[in-house]
Amino acid sequence: MAITESLSNCSSSDTGPVIPTTPLVTFLERVQEAALKTFNETNFDPKFYVDLSLKLDLSTTEKAFDELRKSANGSLSVEGLKGFIEKYFEGAGNDMVYIEPVDFVPEPEGFLPKVENPEVRAWALEVHALWKNLSRKVSDEVHKRPELNTILPLPEQVMIPGSRFREVYYWDSYWVIRGLLASKMHETAKAIVTNLIYLIEEYGYVLNGARAYYTNRSQPPLLSAMVHAIYSRTGDMQLVRKSLPALLKEYHFWNSGIHKVTIQDAQSCNHTLNRYYAMWNKPRPESSTIDTKSASNISNVSEKQHFYREVASAAESGWDFSTRWMRNPPDLTTLATTSILPVDLNAYILRMELDIAFLAKVTGDNSTAEHFLKASQARKEAIKSVFWNAEMGQWLDYWLNDSTCQEPQTWEASNRNQNVFASNFIPLWIESFHSDKSLVKKVMESLKKSGLLHAAGIATSLTNSGEQWDFPNGWAPLQHMIVEGLGRSESKKARSAAEDIAVRWIRTNYVGYKKTGTMHEKYDVEKCGEFGGGGEYAPQTGFGWSNGVVLAFLEEFGWPQDRKIGCE
Ligand SMILES: OC[C@H]1O[C@H](O[C@H]2O[C@H](CO)[C@@H](O)[C@H](O)[C@H]2O)[C@H](O)[C@@H](O)[C@@H]1O
User: Fold this and answer.
1) Does ligand 1 lie within 6 Å of residue 484's CB atom?
2) Tally of CA atoms within 13 A in the half-sphere of 62 that contains its CB
3) pTM of whole model > 0.95?
4) 320 included as an active-site residue
5) Checking phi first, is residue 73 left (phi over 0); if not, alpha (psi -120 to 50) or beta?
6) Is 166 in the pocket of ligand 1 (CB under 6 A)?
7) What are the tens digits of pLDDT across the range 291-350?
8) Residue from 29, 172, 320, 470 carrying the catalytic annotation
9) Given the CA of residue 543, which atom of ligand 1 is nearest to it?
10) Is the separation of the CB atoms in 199 and 205 below 8 Å?
11) Distance, CA of 341 to CA of 37 (rounded, Å)
């Protein structure tokens, strides 16, 4: 359903805050632009250039670049630019150095006790060993001279997703941590949380990723879920005490200003819900050349800025990019992320409220616990009233009439986005919903009929748009949240549906690994053993959250001796 006509025009002009980036990032974007023109590569990756570290200070490097351009009359030669990059920059990725995880052992005691099949066990140990490939710490050089680098000087070791993603990412870290817990690597899991807390202390929220060009947005907020998961395994009270002030600060970030919207429902009740809203209105530095091209047909300056904000806000959602955020799919220029109240974001914030209530209670802070419990009850009502569609048995994203005009907006049934996305099932992940047996039954039936379930897992959407957060791609985090929601229900049928999806997902990851020797960032749910594609960058391997979800699934469901592991 294309939503254009009913929406007023004032949403197309740009308003909202902008967090300026650093002069280094701006300079690296110039190098990126020059590299695209000069190298003319088919596989050009703009992110590579904004990940470079300087050998000398910025003004010296900038001066040398300007001189080079002047001497070449603006048109650089391949050798000239290559020589300049070699002379003035460290290689991308040198800012993060390998570190042996302190708690890695090749076969941890009590590792995946329910995995009986020897082939699967051997593979699970190989996936476990991949933590060694992904383990990094910020180099001493960066700590000495942070201004020469776009990597941020994190205090502890991290797990990176892999390949072009050479830095820690916010929401990826939740599934990395779930995998680390299955691998009994509790210290590494805690170190990741310490880094994310550091980002909240420095910036007020957890950044999309730990680079200077990600300071204008966050990502799906799952820090509370990380702390909850680690505490449940380790009982570490010190971690809880250290995390709580940061979680309160993060909660404030999401529940104030631009991220907060009030909706009046059909019964005239006001509800507060949240949306993604990046504090940026220029091309994303890591994809500057791509965004500039995408916006090339938009001539009005304010409309261009608005488009860039919608692009960055889609990146904040973690679903970059998807028809989910487009008024006229698959036209990327119609991205309207800030005009949507997303089901999944609000489920995550409900989870944050419940987690904070739980964590406050264990520290004995009953008044904070009470306050957040109340907030969670209000949000549960809001999710029911604004998103739930009983006929479809799904929670639907809600289109705001406008992203800038007066509040409260009045809820209208026609503003619900009736298209099917995996996110329509994410509330199941939250205890408040999966504890309701009849609700789970309804949602599970809906999932089965939705068209999302395929041979190799749950598709992201039903639209094959060429974007990576659409059909036929399946992503580990989405499989995990839906499976965990169904699996934690009291319904036997839901638990068996959960296991069925997990088995399909494990099989495709296994066969893909055997074929290519690596784990992938996303998979094609129509073809068992095939990795996914689409989007603005080449498919990536490594891969943090895929490894984490396979280990978490194997820990939960095991693998019997006689169950076949190949594609069916
Ligand atoms: O460089 C383009 C975009 O890449 C990131 O997004 C994708 O990778 C992330 C790391 O695995 C993942 O968290 C995200 O869901 C993916 O879509 C990055 O997060 C974007 O901000 C960036 O523009």
Assistant:
1) no
2) 12
3) yes
4) yes
5) left
6) no
7) 999 999 999 999 999 999 999 999 999 999 999 999 999 999 999 999 999 999 999 999
8) 320
9) 11
10) yes
11) 39
